[in-house]
Write a structure and sequence with these properties.
binds magnesium ion, Helicase, Ruva Protein, domain 3, alpha/beta, single chain, 45% helix, 11 strands, 5-stranded parallel sheet, 328 residues, binds adenosine-5'-diphosphate, Rossmann fold
Length: 328
């Protein structure tokens, strides 16, 4: 059993998490922090994609600290091997036998930094853990905790020295977040102001968690109780199916993409103090849930079409449900 929380308390708690994150990380708007929290409360793994220096690593560290999760970081490099992530059998001379040495993946919150710098074989070492919350070392299977979450960062694939994540790996991320550059001089200069105040580059050491583990588990469970009307389910499904029919698209979103959009919408509703999903939740998260699952035709890419623009086009074309119930 997990503790029950009422919807007002949930909203206050979630606000506290995003407010605390915003005190360290300068976000373009609060919405991006709410989206990230949605991904986490939906029990998913999140991919952060941006150019170097936009605060990806900082943002992930801030979330790890604020949620109070045990966390580890792996810096992905071209020579990183699967065993460096999941662990391996090692010879223990003292005991004269082989023992399993568990890798850094045995944690709640894994910061997979610059994930696309490692070889696909190494990237794939995460697949079993991400999908099934377990890893297999030398034929033995070990369970990971229920809070296990990968927060991966990557530089855009056009950059040198990167190996694109295989499609199957991409599909395992519930959402992709690209923050982009801050839009105003006021916000961007705030980064420098804070640096002057903190007198160091990494202020995350002092961050205290804003939630207890029990509260986190409760939030994750409450997200599973958010009501979704049949018309909203159809709306999501229609969006997914349109990604496969669009003429710019070579590979559309999988059913897993539909599940991701459903879970994100429920978590987003919960954070906003609602125990039912509305069409706006779906619209707001569609690009985050689906853009990394859609492969475009080469011609469309050359014309400047992006997965995000395709999703926006699709959202304009799909009829938004006007009627939906708000619970049973
Ligand atoms: N939006 C932001 N808010 C606060 N600090 C930022 C922001 N963007 C960048 N920084 C600072 O810039 C530096 C680079 O950030 P980092 O997280 O290492 O970038 P990335 O991982 O994207 O390459 C860090 O010192 C970080 O504190
Ligand atoms: Mg980084």
């Amino acid at each position: 059993m997990y503790m029950k929380m009422n919807i007002e308390d949930i909203q206050i708690l979630c606000n506290r998490i995003t407010d605390e994150a915003g005190k360290v990380f300068v976000a373009a708007d609060k919405e991006v922090l709410v989206k990230i929290l949605s991904g986490f409360l939906a029990g998913g793994h999140i991919l952060f994609e941006d150019n170097p220096g936009l605060g990806k690593t900082l943002l992930v560290k801030v979330f790890a600290k604020i949620t109070g999760c045990q966390w580890k970081r792996i810096q992905f490099t071209p020579d990183l091997m699967p065993a460096d992530i999941i662990g391996t059998k090692v010879w223990k001379g003292v005991n004269s036998n082989f023992e399993i040495e568990k890798g850094p993946i045995f944690t709640n919150f894994l910061l997979a930094d610059e994930i696309n710098r490692a070889m696909p074989k190494t990237q794939s070492a995460l697949l079993e853990a991400m999908e099934e919350h377990q890893v297999t070392i030398e034929g033995n299977t070990y369970k990971l905790g229920s809070l296990f979450t990968v927060m991966a960062t990557q530089n855009p694939i056009e950059m040198e020295g990167t190996y694109p994540l295989p499609e199957a790996q991409m599909d395992r991320f519930i959402m992709k977040i690209s923050m982009g550059y801050l839009d105003s001089i006021e916000k961007e200069s705030e980064i420098l102001r804070r640096r002057v105040l903190w007198k160091r580059d990494d202020p995350t050491e002092d961050i205290k968690s804003a939630v207890t583990q029990d509260q986190l588990v409760a939030l994750l469970n409450e997200a599973e109780n958010v009501y979704v009307d049949e018309n909203i389910i159809r709306y999501i499904t229609e969006i997914i199916r349109c990604t496969r029919k669009n003429s710019n698209v070579r590979l559309g979103a999988s059913p897993r993409g539909g599940l991701a959009l459903l879970k994100l919408s429920r978590a987003f509703a919960l954070i906003n103090g609602r125990n039912f999903v509305i069409p706006d939740d779906v619209k707001l998260l569609a690009a985050n849930a689906l853009s990394h699952r859609i492969m475009l035709n080469v011609d469309s890419i050359l014309e400047g079409v992006t997965p995000e623009s395709v999703i926006n086009m699709i959202l304009k074309g799909v009829e938004v449900p006007k009627e939906y119930t708000r619970g049973i």
